[in-house]
Amino acid sequence: MTDFKDTLQKCMGNTGELAKISPDFFKANDELTKIAYASETLDMKTKELIFLSFAIAKQCESCIAVHVSKYIEAGGDRESLAELANLSILMDGGPGMVYSGKVLEAFDQLSQ
C-alpha cells in the first residue's frame, strides 16, 4: 500500500529542490499552470479529473497524490473518482485497473 501523504510530501520537496536549481523554468511553468487553472470553461473538479486520467495512464503515483489532493480541495467526491476509474479501466485495461485503485486509495488517505 502506498502512503500517499508521504508521497505528496516527498513530491513537493523534490519539486522544490528542482525549482531552486531551475527557477526560470519553474516560474514559466507556474505561469502556464495559472493560465490553465484560471480558465472557467471547465470547473476545478473536472480539470482535476482530467489530470487524474493522465496520472492513471502514465502510472504516476506522485501525480495521483498531487491531483487527488487538489480534487479534494475542489470538493470532489469518491463516487466521481470511481466513475473515472471505470473509464480508465475501459481505456487502459489492467494497468488502468491497478492505478485507478490507487486513485481511490489516495482519496481515502488524503481526505482524512
Topology overview:
Elements: H1 4-21, H2 23-38, H3 44-58, H4 61-73, H5 78-110
Helix pairs in contact: 1-2, 1-4, 3-4, 3-5, 4-5
Description:
This protein is mostly helical. It contains 5 helices and no strands. It has helices at 4-21, 23-38, 44-58, 61-73, 78-110. α1 crosses α2 and α1 (4-21) packs across α4. 26% of the residues are buried. The mean pLDDT is 95.
Key features of this structure:
112 residues, mainly alpha
Please trace the helix and strand order, writing H or E for each element: HHHHH
Mean pLDDT: 95
Tally of DSSP helical segments: 5
Profile the largest sheet.
Answer: none
Beta-strand level of the residues, as a percent range? Answer: under 5%
Gyration radius, rounded: 14 Å
Oligomer: single chain
Share of helical residues: over 70%
Q: How far apart are the first and last residues' alpha carbons, in Å?
A: 16 Å
Structural class based on helices, strands and sheet pairing: mainly alpha
Shape: globular
The number of E-state strands comes to 0
Low-confidence stretches: none
Task: Briefly summarize what is shown.
With 112 residues, the chain is mainly alpha-helical. The chain contains 5 helices and no strands.
